[in-house]
């Protein structure tokens, strides 16, 4: 199978990357990337110069109050050591931005002017202890032991100052934390926040200087891990266009008439492309001096996941025209699913949803366990299996050439995916494999819900989350109903039960891994529990699915969306009751 | 004129029928909401006030110098402080979960002060504690500096962290306002190269419709959709409580840029006469010129940001250069397009 490297909408991936990098630098940077000249700063003649492209400096010779308060021509005014601002949003944020900038300048100034122990007198050594109520009381030194050890070593003088002569009290003693402080000053001054790829194994005791401490935002590491994903995007676009080309010039029909099975065609086409992707992972890891086996273990499922999505795109798309947009949509959804969780690594354990979090950990030199690994990669394999199976079922001429609305195409694909000799097993398996897709769609719904003001946004999200689950559980049954493979209420009830079992099995399996992974911190619960990972017992799942399917049986497939709505409303009410919102 | 509107209508119908435009709108909404969730979500995660607001009660145990000003700073930072006389007491309180962190505050004897901080191994909890402890520790650091005769200026400027504000005005608004222009360009390419590849353009042209009229109508249809999207985004932003100044200028700039891009893409597609290649060159061109424009003070994004924040000195004149470019393209496009279409690829 040949691989032709001719990309159509490959640049879209680049646009997304630029966007992602833009955001990361926006929050983490000190030197501006975006928002050039968005604030106007008034300075008196001979006032300080400001070297930050966000600020435009203007010399205000007289009556700064007039220009600041009445004319609003400037947003802030620097008057000696004072900074004057107005009471509106623009001015307050301008003052905030100026504060960040000036504080940094001041730190640089005192670093130059004073000795290190006067400029940075406070150093905080952080020691980590096993958490409260942990059973492993025995492991590691205890707090009191640590303190005793400290008292005995560091009270008279620094431990590791080689010339530690206790007598010379007049000469400034080199404090053993000075080296760490210098390191952090250098980091601050070097200013360029390029991704730090140095494998920085933090020791058990890290030293913090409060004014030099920055929040542990993982932007740069996330950007580095995204470097791995980018080539895979490009390669998978070539994979897609190789399908599209053959579809257009009719060669796929020729290929399908040979004794090669559709599955072999897919594997054959996929192999060279996945090999290239793997090679890119190897090259990047070697360039960044990362841990090769670990990187492979993390990125193989990611590669399979991306290829799974890109296998379905060319098989389902209809016209020439919507390829661009369909693949753009695929890229944005995949990118957000991969990139969004690792941004919260270290803050919420649900960030392990994305394998990139593991890669972030790897580059931070922090450990993670097998459970975390399974939690983030098993869904990727699920999606791949589902896509490879569905792909091999729908890879036939009639399906590829048919021009129908997208939802009809989807229904057709599901119908072809169901094995008519083993309907019961098929429906169970379908629900089971759809669970990761459900999670991903719910995550997308979560992001979209933020556009709607709060109470409505949350309500909409709860309904959407329930509707997504209900569709996943009932769509196979509805397709069978439409094709008149089944018709009796009894069949529908049995299939609904099996579908609920399949769905719950996968959901529980994921929960089982996640429950031990995810700590019950109030914050992560507040952000993430609002619609996902509900512990819904089997009976409830079954009732909602059966409701939607029976309504569809009674009134016909035309009313399937309404039936889903009914099932979802019941689901939401149940969820609210389970949460204790309604009695 | 009726032919013009007939073509416009035909274009709009083809876009709405294929639902392409719906996908495009979805993508824009998705990109912006995804990034805004990251920015605002992270901001609240790393903001001590919002952590304390959700009811997280941070308790810290103190050993050592209980009379240190740090204890007062901690209390000002809404932390619950418990003092312990011996490390063993502190340890048992920590083990029993009565305090979330333990600090060993040494006496200040001049020179560098090495303080010990004991945090739980749980990553999320220790991150939260560090974020909450940061401000009190910074205040104590400044206090120690003053003690040593070092004065840090500007440390008490009133102002809020600008990250969310900057994200909204320098990223979200420009992306929402210029993405429709990007979509317009790719629509024009799709539409023109489809006609070129299917040889329907000749038939259309043979009818008493000039090439200018056909292209003009296609571009007008794409611009109409761009205006619709921009208006939709303004409404969404207002609905979310994001104020934009100079609404008129903002939409005008967005349309002028969309017109520039759409006309440029008409040229590209008539030159290559092949959809795939045109789209590739087009996206290269757009991302390239977008990147280059960053270095100019009057780049569309920077001007858009200043319009939206209501900069005092930014007005109509700042987009004059784009009007000049538009006029130049208007003069060049008709003869060039005619030449390119008849030229064999």
Q: How many strands, what sense, and barrel or not for the largest sheet of chain B?
A: 4 strands, mixed
Number of strands of chain B: 4
Which class of secondary structure composition applies to the elements of chain A? mainly alpha
Task: Note poorly predicted spans of chain A.
Answer: 1-9, 26-32, 132-139, 155-171, 192-204, 516-536
Principal-axes shape call of chain A: elongated
Helix and strand sequence of chain A: HEEHEEHHEHHEHHHHHHHHHHHHHHH
Shape of chain B: elongated
Q: Fraction of residues of chain B in helices?
A: 55-70%
Number of helices of chain A: 21
Tell me what the structure shows.
The complex is a heterodimer of chains A (583) and B (345). Chain A is mainly alpha-helical. Chain A has 3 domains: 1-26 and 218-417, no CATH class; 30-117, no CATH class; 418-583. In chain A, 63% of the residues lie in helices and 5% in strands. In chain A, the strands form 2 sheets. Chain A has a 4-stranded mixed beta sheet. In chain A, strands 5-6 form a two-stranded antiparallel sheet. In chain A, α7 (219-248) packs parallel to α10 (292-316), α13 (370-394) runs antiparallel to α18 (489-517) and α18 (489-517) packs antiparallel against α20. The termini of chain A are far apart. Chain B has 345 residues and is an alpha/beta fold. Chain B folds into 2 domains: 2-41 and 161-342, no CATH class; 48-147, D-Maltodextrin-Binding Protein, domain 2 (3-Layer(aba) Sandwich), CATH 3.40.190. Chain B contains 13 helices and 4 strands. Chain B has helices at 2-18, 20-45, 48-53, 69-76, 87-95, 123-147, 163-197, 200-206, 211-239, 247-272, 275-293, 300-309, 320-342; strands at 59-64, 80-84, 101-105, 113-120. Chain B has a 4-stranded mixed beta sheet, with helices on both faces. Chain B is elongated, with a radius of gyration of 30 Å. Classes of the chains: A mainly alpha (583), B alpha/beta (345).
